[in-house]
């Protein structure tokens, strides 16, 4: 008994065989209903048999194709931003790198994400469950490296060894066929214990998954093609392998029914916070007691069946609308049969004209069947069919305005209200698809953050990935605090909406800058506050990130210039400059007057010296004359 209990663990093959068998029983009705709905959809789509007994009205195909376009109209673009719109340069760069990496993954020519999501939406509308998973594939390369070792003699020699490295990394969004998915029992997706994907693999494909060759050869080949004879089925049989993701053990198990052991076990392959590589599936009609859906077609299946019955009756009645009657065989002589097949403006000759006129002419010669009751019945059936179609539109939420069919007698207000009614009915489904795509992008972004090498990210995005950015990306909590991952709308939008958003950003920024420049000119200390307010506004617009760097550069330049101006001495007062200039002029005048006086004094002094010299010379001359003239 204890040994039996020990075997029934997630690490045993018997455990998963029992889990998958229980899941098969739980989803038996779901798969049968899904197959019936798809058969009905295909029969309507390929309805080219005009002679079959029961006719069908292609309401399921019409509704499905209409809802496909309404729920998913275009590729959703990843929108990665800083969570709190604050000045976080590292968070800003991480957001930009992740957004570019996600855009690169969605633009991969080998993986058309639109085709994958459209297939999931189609499964949601028909069988009732649509899935897309994220697949991460690192491409491992090998290189040789020399190292020093000792030979048999103990001497140092060089040897070579092969070293594996991550040559490239790829991310793929892959559609999961609705029949190839199983899950454990849970009422809410967050409580889901395990999920499983079904694969049909050849022996070589198993070996390529690093399964041992003897195991790949020994596993039962229990997946056989549906067509072909017994020999062909055995020749092309494959192994039905279940890829099981168990949240309790955070492991991935590879299991084949009727094989006693698990063929492979991987520990936490992607390291995701929610573990599963898929978001919550797109589900049709569900209740709180189970996650197994009911096809939406079942909600109006009775009305669709009645619509088929009316269409069948209409076809029979319309087929009965033929010109038939009786005639007088004595007056015929082949004239009436010729008249029935006569062309336009053709007259038929009559041999016994007098007899024909005596019996009342053509009116008396034959009488046609009264088709008025059949025509009235046909008209009533057409009216009843239109009522049924409107009832189905109310059940599905498709209004005539959304379908493009309008009544010219209705007012614009009435059409707008009907369109809003239809939109409200579809908004919940559109929101579910948008959330599904957003969660896909979040899983992909987590894989990129956790596993992608900086060199690969730089090649993908053209941006330098610094160690600070890598640290932020690798830390689950920090990344969640700093980066928020959303998507734009997945439905068609009017181009005027995006255009109007750009115009609003430009108008608001222009008006703000004009007022801010005036206020900053009066109070320069308000300049930093003005820039912070501008950045706070711009960060909330999708296109604002492109100009945020320019705003920051402009801010740095202006603040640097203001700092330089503050370090310079204040400009002189004009009045003081005027007084100073007057003083300088007065001083110059005084200096000029003093110079003139000094020169006059010098000249007077020189004149006095000359006069004294002349007087002394005259005196000497007089004294000499006196000596000469003195008597001997």
Would you write up a description of this structure?
By secondary structure, this protein is of the alpha+beta class. It is 55% helix and 16% strand. It has helices at residues 2-7, 13-26, 28-45, 59-71, 89-106, 113-125, 203-208, 213-218, 230-235, 301-320, 329-332, 335-340, 353-358, 361-365, 372-396, 412-451, 454-461, 467-474, 476-482, 495-522, 527-538, 545-567, 574-629; strands at residues 78-82, 129-150, 156-176, 181-183, 194-201, 239-246, 251-256, 264-267, 282-283, 285-287, 290-294, 325-327, 366-368, 483-487. The strands form five sheets. A five-stranded antiparallel sheet has the order 4-5-6-7-8. A three-stranded antiparallel sheet has the order 3-2-9. The protein starts with a helix and ends with a helix. 21% of the residues are buried. The model is unreliable at 1-6 and 44-51 (pLDDT under 50).
The global form is: elongated
In percent, how helical is the residue content?
Answer: 55-70%
Taken as a percent bin, the fraction of beta residues is 15-25%
Mean pLDDT across every amino acid position:
81
Q: Any low-confidence stretches, pLDDT <50, length ≥5? A: 1-6, 44-51
**Protein structure class:** alpha+beta
Largest sheet, in brief, is:
5 strands, antiparallel
Order of strands, widest sheet? 4-5-6-7-8
Distance from N terminus to C terminus (CA atoms, Å) equals: 181 Å
Report the C-alpha radius of gyration, rounded: 48 Å
